[in-house]
Amino acid sequence: MKTRSPCRPNMVRKRLIRVHSQWFVNHEKLSRVWVQTAAKAWFMRRAVIGVFALCMAVLATACTERPRLETAVAERQPYVLGSGDRLRITVFNQPTLSASYSVDASGIITMPLLGPVEAGGRTTFELQNAIEARLAKDFLREPNVSVEVETYRPFFVYGEVTQGGQYAYVAGMTAEQAIAIAGGYTPRANRNTVQIARRDSQGVARVSVPLTTIVQPGDTVYVKERWF
């Protein structure tokens, strides 16, 4: 009967070294996977926080701008003059003062005798009163002035429309009609709502509105792309 020979010390040592080496390799791989997973999780958390913060900022801006623009787009609001409008001003019995005047980029018209007169930001009635007050102060007794808009400043359409750009304003035009003037929708257009940007005394307000909203001179109509 054969007797089993005792294990050599060198063989045992080699086996132990191989086992420890394999354990260290596996441990290093697991550590690397854990670090990569933790890094991905950190970046995902940061991305989610960033998107959430962006959404909250957009909502806050929309909540601030919506009352401003909803007031501004009211159909019965008096029209406020601005750069690009052309006015017909008539001063009774004063043919040298009666003429057409264009509102320049700074909102000013220049009239004989009076020189620069601020028109931008005023209604036609307010401008009429301002001209009458200045004429009565230095030049005429009981002046009678009328102010009419001869040509409105243009409006703008861009986004998912066939021909975006600048167009002549048509009184009483809705956002849907403005899009039709720009050649209609592209296949990727969102046809449910549009955005209108309008300048007021506080700056430019932008908000999504129904297609039946009345467009005013100087408005920018933006058609967004649909998601699906």
Specify the helix fraction band: 25-40%
Number of strands: 10
Total domains: 3
Shape: elongated
Fold-level CATH name of the largest domain: Outer membrane lipoprotein wza fold like
Taken in chain order, the helices and strands follow as HEEEEHEEEHEEE
Report Rg.
36 Å
Could you tell me the mean pLDDT?
A: 80
Question: Proportion of β residues?
Answer: 15-25%
The unreliable regions are none
Let me know the largest β-sheet: 5 strands, mixed
At the first level of CATH, what is the class of the largest domain? Alpha Beta
Ends distance: 83 Å
Structural category: alpha+beta
Oligomer: single chain
CATH superfamily of the largest domain: Outer membrane lipoprotein wza domain like
User: How does CATH name the architecture of the largest domain?
Assistant: Roll
What strand line-up does the widest sheet have? 7-6-10-8-9
